[in-house]
UniProtKB/TrEMBL annotation:
<dbReference type="GO" id="GO:0005886">
    <property type="term" value="C:plasma membrane"/>
</dbReference>
<dbReference type="InterPro" id="IPR050487">
    <property type="entry name" value="FtsQ_DivIB"/>
</dbReference>
<protein>
    <submittedName>
        <fullName>Cell division protein FtsQ</fullName>
    </submittedName>
</protein>
<feature type="region of interest" description="Disordered">
    <location>
        <begin position="1"/>
        <end position="22"/>
    </location>
</feature>
<keyword id="KW-1003">Cell membrane</keyword>
<keyword id="KW-0472">Membrane</keyword>
<feature type="domain" description="POTRA">
    <location>
        <begin position="68"/>
        <end position="136"/>
    </location>
</feature>
<dbReference type="InterPro" id="IPR013685">
    <property type="entry name" value="POTRA_FtsQ_type"/>
</dbReference>
<dbReference type="Pfam" id="PF08478">
    <property type="entry name" value="POTRA_1"/>
</dbReference>
<feature type="transmembrane region" description="Helical">
    <location>
        <begin position="44"/>
        <end position="64"/>
    </location>
</feature>
<dbReference type="GO" id="GO:0051301">
    <property type="term" value="P:cell division"/>
</dbReference>
<feature type="compositionally biased region" description="Acidic residues">
    <location>
        <begin position="8"/>
        <end position="21"/>
    </location>
</feature>
<keyword id="KW-0132">Cell division</keyword>
<keyword id="KW-0131">Cell cycle</keyword>
<keyword id="KW-0812">Transmembrane</keyword>
<dbReference type="InterPro" id="IPR034746">
    <property type="entry name" value="POTRA"/>
</dbReference>
<keyword id="KW-1133">Transmembrane helix</keyword>
Length: 258
């Protein structure tokens, strides 16, 4: 009896000590795991904070002072458009920081010039703004009391002036950018092979489906409409090697020559 009581009294104490030792080991292991992690973050904050401050200060200096101001402007891609016209619409104030210029707004102003199809504006650090211009190119013209009107490949009417050499004349009832027949005629000319376009003196458009290309040597190509132009372009040059004055490719499966 005495021996059993001794064992019963000892067992609870043994269990308590074991549990206490286990808790201590867990706390010590957790502390050791946190120490390197916390130390790394302290080092990052210690070295990173001054770097962030320096970067912010440099950005403020560059943004609000003449340190990175625009000192030169390069204009590229102009021939028909006078360079001074491009520079006149840039509106870049003297001493303006490179970081404060609105390149999209500048590009829109340049593209608003009648002879400009599109424009791209880039910052070239430390102090240059580059403006690249894509000019409109006349593909046809039509006569009016005001003079010859030039249209580009998008059917945009962009100038009233003598056409460049080699530009075909458009003959239609109501020529203009908003006219469907005009747009169809420009689409036909654009679809024609370059070797054929170089020979076209007039584009006669009676409707969107009745378009003829009159060549400078008095031959005529009856094209029809702008539909199926890829197949028409594929057969027209071989057909033009045949004797004749009128070449009808309006139906590319049934070409006729007379």
């Amino acid at each position: 009896m005495t021996r059993r009581a001794t064992i019963d009294e000892a067992d609870p104490y043994a269990e308590d000590e074991s549990a206490a030792d286990g808790d201590d080991r867990i706390h010590r292991a957790g502390a050791r795991a946190r120490m390197p992690f916390d130390g790394r973050w302290r080092r990052i904050l210690l070295w990173g904070a001054p770097i962030v401050v320096v970067v912010i200060v440099l950005l403020v200096i560059a943004y609000f002072t003449p340190a990175l101001s625009v000192r030169s402007v390069q204009v590229e891609g102009v021939s028909a458009v006078p360079e001074q016209d491009v520079r006149a619409v840039l509106q870049i104030p003297d001493g303006r920081s490179m970081l404060r210029i609105d390149t999209d707004a500048i590009a829109r102003r340049v593209a608003s010039l009648p002879k400009v199809r599109s424009a791209r504006v880039q910052r070239v650090f430390p102090s240059t703004v580059r403006v690249t211009v894509d000019e409109r190119t006349a593909v046809v013209f039509f006569d009016s009391p005001q003079g010859p009107h030039l249209l580009d490949g998008d059917s945009v009417e962009f100038a009233i002036e003598p056409p460049p050499p080699g530009v075909a004349k458009l003959v239609t009832g109501h020529p203009g950018s908003a006219d469907p027949v005009t747009r169809a005629a420009v689409a036909v000319l654009d679809a024609a092979p370059p070797a054929l376009r170089a020979q076209v003196g007039e584009v006669v458009a009676r409707s969107v489906s009745d378009i003829e290309l009159k060549l400078r040597d008095d031959r005529t190509v009856i094209w029809g409409g702008a539909d199926d132009s890829e197949r028409k372009a594929a057969v027209v040059l071989p057909v033009l090697t045949r004797p004749g004055t009128v070449f009808d490719v309006s139906s590319p499966d049934l070409v006729t020559v007379r």
